[in-house]
Amino acid sequence: MPSLPSGSERHDNTNSTSTPTNDTTLFGNQNAEDCAIVSLLNQSGMEVKKGKATDGKVDFFYIDPGIYYLSLFYDRNGDGKWTTGNYALQQQGEETYFYPGAINLKAQWEITQDWNPTKTPLFKQKPEKITKQKAQQKKSTKDRNEERRQKQERNKRKR
């Protein structure tokens, strides 16, 4: 039997009357308040499943194998949605946190993931792969004269 990552267990979904499925189960242990809403995000950053934390834990069942990410926000007003701030009332938006790494879910496995949302600084939390607005790459200046010279040399060789 292959060695399992820390905090992971093999899940046997087979019995005599059913066929095995490829579904995975993720158990999340957050050091979070009960008003926390945890979202399971795919590689595009889109929400796949959402659950409310109870006693600092949230469970996601019947997940397709793949790479996923976690986000969490504290639902202070209890509406089940992330609420923006209100400048006129001097209210901040509901706090949002991201698990800083990817979670690789494999077929027929149960994985327990521990996470303290406030341990990692906010600016280091959101993984680069699901960040929509990426940092700009350093722009390089092009030497158009050199490009033209090389193009002319190629044209001369063809003649």
Describe this structure in words.
By secondary structure, this protein is mainly beta. The chain has a single domain (8-132), classed as Immunoglobulin-like, CATH 2.60.40. The chain has one helix and nine strands, in the order E-E-E-E-E-E-E-E-E-H. The strands form two sheets. Strands 3, 4, 6, 7 and 8 form a five-stranded antiparallel sheet that branches. Strands 1-9-2-5 form a four-stranded mixed sheet, with no helix packed on it. A hairpin with a 5-residue loop joins strand 3 (36-41) and strand 4 (47-52). The longest helix has 15 residues, at 144-158. The protein is elongated. Residues 1-20 have low confidence and may be disordered.
Key terms:
159 residues; mainly beta; Immunoglobulin-like; five-stranded antiparallel sheet; four-stranded mixed sheet; 1 helix; 9 strands; 9% helix; 32% strand; disordered N terminus
CATH topology: Immunoglobulin-like
> What distance separates the N and C termini?
67 Å
Q: Given the helix and strand composition, which structural class is it?
A: mainly beta
Largest sheet: 5 strands, antiparallel
Query: Averaging pLDDT over every residue, what do you get?
Result: 77
Shape from CA axes?
elongated
| Helical amount | under 10%
Instruction: Spell the H/E element sequence.
Output: EEEEEEEEEH
Question: What count of helical segments does DSSP give?
Answer: 1
Q: What is the C-level CATH assignment?
A: Mainly Beta
Total strands: 9
**Total number of domains:** 1
The assigned CATH architecture is Sandwich
CATH superfamily: Immunoglobulins
Strand portion, in percent? 25-35%
Low-confidence stretches: 1-20
The value of Rg in angstroms is: 24 Å
